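Usage

Read records sequentially. Each one opens with the input sequence:
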Amino acid sequence: MKTFPFLGPFLPDTPLAWYQGASISPHTFLGHLGHCLKTWPSSSHVINLCQDRYAFLLGFAAALLRKQITLLPLNRATESLQEIGKAYPGCLYLTDSNETIPGIEKLSLNPSQLKGSSPIERPLIPYDQMAVIAFTSGSTGNPRPNYKSWGSLVQVAKKTGQRLGLELRRKDILTIVSTVPHQHMYGLETSIMLPIQKGWAIYSGRPFFPEDIRSALTTLPPKRILVSTPIHLRACMLEHTQFPALESILSATAPLSQALAHQVETAAQTKLTEIYGFAEAGTIATRQTARELNWHLLDGLELASCASGYSVSTSYFPDPVPIPDSIQAQGPHEFSLGGRPSHMVNIGGHRTSLEELNEKLTSIEGVTDGMFYIPDEGENPGDRLVAFIVAPGHSQVSILTALRKKGDPVFLPRPLIFLERLPRNPTGKLPRETLHALFQTHLSSTGQKIIS
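and closes with the structure output:
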């Protein structure tokens, strides 16, 4: 039976994680894991809600060793979690906080309270063992389960690490600090799987604000990688955050403009790599956004045309996986990204995409966040585009004037709705239903007809 180790090439006394200011060695981790396994309950599935990254790692490892599948919910809303409980009867939920989910058995985990225990052997996990069920983003329709084997998670981690091309010595201590939740596929792949497979350390916290990010990075040994999103990186640039020396920065696609990528690289004096993927496949491609427009597939992946556009195949996919975005192939291993088909905008024969419009909106100086919205038919008089914007000091006139200079006026939003902040989820996304609710609130506040 083919297996892959849970832990990569860690030296015995090097940090596997930084937890509450102290380093956790592989030896200590295996002792903590052994302690957990002594009382770990039986179940087929576990909803891992641990907010601390080290607690999540312990729960993830224990579930794998008990042949349990970890469920990664889209959000922490009680009703959403109860729906998962109904879909997977008998599942448990693991938490490191006091939250309760009526109707689902609770399992608590606090690493600081684990007693010393003899470390278990370094685990070997069967390649084909089902490890995770991740759910599609709510911004693309109704959430659907996506099954991930242990082998596929390991392959993505190894290929992503190879793509970064970092030159490290055997004894170098490299730590990944992430601003994104590990319950999301991007967070799981980059802040859990990538470090444990490459022998790098995990920072257990999840800094959010620019000063928190700077502080977390500066408390660690010199070699660090920041995993983040364009929203977090833009906030750091607006506050002129002083980054310490970094080996690399990884960013999700939200989208990330080339101008912001240049700015971040200059401020951090390192290279920024943008990650492209989706729940059905995980990470499939990267680009160095400050220098590249096209995306490059990870080694061993290949594009092919299919009924819906293009699919991607590799040895660890049982079947080719359709790519949900509109792309232009530049050969079997390279492509340019056009956006989701549902994000394409056609007004009077003029075409663009929401991604392009959002990039133009957020590139206006003084705009801290913004998002275009395509209303449902009849929802907005004249079926005009709507835009939500966070831009202290700007007015309707100044924003519309700036947009006119950047593109076709047929795409100017009516209305342009100013907000103090956009209610993005922890990975920086704004699902369509959230934008719909925002627009309905605006219509209600202005006395206009609300379309349900």
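Summary fields computed downstream for this record:
- The chain has eleven helices and 27 strands.
- The chain has a mean pLDDT of 90.
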